[in-house]
Amino acid sequence: MSIPFKNILVFLSIAFVVFGYAQNGENAITFEMKLSKDKLGINERIRVDFTMNKDGDNFNPPDFTGFRVLMGPSQSISSSWINGVRSYSKTYSYTLVPTARGQFTIQQATIVIDGETYKSLPRKVEVTAAVDKPSDQMTVDDVADESLHLVAEVSKTSPYLNEAISVVYKLYVAPSISVSNYQPLDNPKYNNFWSQDIPVRRLSAENGTYKGKPYRYVILKRVVLYPQKSGKLEIEPLSLDVTVDVPTAKRDFFGGRIYSQTNKTVSAGRRTINVKALPEKNKPVDFSGAVGNFNFSVTTSKTALNASESLQAKVEVSGKGNLKLFQLPEPNLPGSLEVYDPEFDENVRTTLAGSQGKVSNNYTIVPSFKGKYPIPSIAFSYFDPSSESYKTLNSDEIVINVKEGPVNSSVGNLPNNSTGNKQAVATGNQFNFIKLQPNLSTIGTNYFFGTTRFYLFLLLPLLLIPAAIAFGKKRDAIASDVVGNRIRRANKLARKFLSKAQKELGNKEAFYIALEKALHNYLKAKLKIETSEFSKDKIASLLNEKDVDENTNTGFIALLQNCEMARYSPFSEVQMQQDYDKASEVISQLDKQL
C-alpha cells in the first residue's frame, strides 16, 4: 500500500514546524553566577553556582581571590519535557570559605556553548567579623527568625488630636522561604483611638525591600485611627502564628531541595504616637472638635409656602476629616416655626487617607402663622492640621415667606429666638380665610323617628357599655403589667436599632458594620455619651456605674469584639445569626436594667 505524496508533504511540514519551535525555545542561552549570600562572617561559608540552560565545553572558573575552595566543582544536571518543550539546566557548584575580612569580587567565569564564549557577571561579597552562629550551623527556626518580619507602618507619628493616621500591617518574607498559613494570636487594642478598619479583600504578594534587602510582602490589615487624647499613646502589637517552609541542605532523588516546616510567632511590636493637643490660641467659642478640611452649608427645600405646610432645612458639613466625631451646629429658628427633632444622615467612606464624605441634620419645619421668618446665619468652626490654624465658615441668611395663614398679632415675627410664645390672641382678620356664608341646600323630607335605624342607634350605647368595660379592664391589666411593658418596649427598641443589621444578614462586612453602629447608637441614646468616648473600656465602666449585671456587660463587650474580629477573620452565616440574636437579647436586657 503506497502513501500519497500529498500526505507525505503534510507530515514533513508539521515536523519542520515542531522542530522550529523546539529550536526557538533553545536559542535563548543563559549563563549566570548565583551566590547563596552576598554578606557573611569570616567563620561562615558561601555557595557559588554557575548555571547554564544548554550544555557547553571548556568551563573556566574564576580566581576566587580572598576565598579558599572547600568543595567543588560539583556538577548537577536537570532535564525535562513539559508540553513538548524541553527544559535543561546544568550547574557547577563551589563551596568557599573567606580567608580575610573586607570587600571582595568574584570575577567572571567563562564557558563555550555552540562555538561561542559566554561570561557570567562579576559579583561583590562583603566579609565581616565572625558571627555568633554561622549560617551553616543555623537551625530551621533560626532561618525562619531571620527571614520573617511583621511590620506596622504608621503614616504619622506626631498627629494633632482627632487627626487621622493610618496603620498598615505588612508581613515580609525572604525569597528563600515560603509561608503556607498564618493565624492571628493577639489583635491590637486601640485604646484612646477611634478606629475604622479598611478590609483587605485579597491577599497578594508584592516585591519590596526590608532593611535594604529584597523581600516579598503581603498586606494583612489596614486601619485608620483618630486619637481622642493628647500625649503619648501606645498602639498594641499584632501577633501572628505563621507556618513556614524552610529549605534545608538536603536534596531528594531528583536533586530538588528538601523543605522543613516550622511554626513561628511574629509580632509587629508596640508603636508610640505623640499626639499634639489643639492650640488654645484663637480657638473659636463655638468649636465642637472638627479637625480636617470642610465645607459648610444650610439649605431649605423651599422658601415660600402656606401656614401648616412643611419644609425641610438641612445643615450639612462635607469634606475630609473626623466627620463622625463632632456635633453639627444647630439653627436658631423663630419661635413661630414649629421645629421637629432632626434626622441625622451620614454618607462617609474611609480610606487610608482618612474619612471623607458628608454628614447632615435634616429639620422638618411647620410655620403656624403668616409672615416672613429669617433663619440667621450659622457659624461652623474647625481646625485645619495642614495650616495649623482654626477656620470659621458662615452660612447665608435664609428668609421663609409664609404667604397664607392666620396672623400672629400678639407675637409677630420672632427673628432671633426659638423659644417665643406660640399662643396668639384671635384679633383682627385672623380668621378671614374661614368661609362665613355657607352654601347649603334643602334636602328632601326623610322621617327618622320610629324607624328601625332609630331604635338601633338608641340601643347602641347600651350595647357598647360591656365592650367598653372589657376594654378598660384589658387596658388596666396591660398598664399594671410593669415587667411585660418593659419587655415589650425593650424588644421594640432592639428591633429599631438592629433593623439595618437584620437586612444585611449573610453579607459579613456590611452586617458587622451595621451591628457595631447599632450598638453604639443605642448607647449614645441611652447613656447620653458622645461618639468619641466609644472605647470598650469606657463602655464597660459606664455599664458598671449603671449597675448593669456582669453577664449583660460581658455580652455587650463580646459583641463589639466580634464586630472588630469579623473584618479580617472568616465568620459563617450561623455565627452572624447568633450574634444578631445575642445583640437583640443584650439590648433588651440593658433597656430593662437602665
Short description:
The protein has helices at residues 5-27, 140-147, 452-480, 482-503, 508-527, 536-545, 550-565, 573-593, and strands at 31-35, 39-41, 46-52, 57-60, 67-82, 85-98, 102-106, 110-113, 116-119, 123-128, 148-154, 165-173, 178-186, 193-198, 206-210, 213-227, 231-235, 239-251, 257-267, 271-275, 292-300, 304-305, 311-321, 337-339, 343-351, 354-367, 371-375, 379-384, 389-394, 398-402.
Q: Helix/strand-derived class?
A: alpha+beta
Taking the sheet with the most strands, its summary is: 5 strands, antiparallel
Shape: elongated
Q: Using DSSP, what is the number of strands?
A: 30
**CATH architecture descriptor text of the largest domain:** Sandwich
Radius of gyration: 40 Å
Task: Output the CATH topology of the largest domain.
Answer: Immunoglobulin-like
Structural domains: how many: 4
- Broad CATH class of the largest domain: Mainly Beta
Mean pLDDT: 80
- Strand residues, percent: 35-45%
| Helix count from the secondary structure assignment | 8
Helical fraction equals 25-40%
Termini separation (Å)? 102 Å
**Unreliable stretches covering 5 or more consecutive residues:** 16-26, 411-431
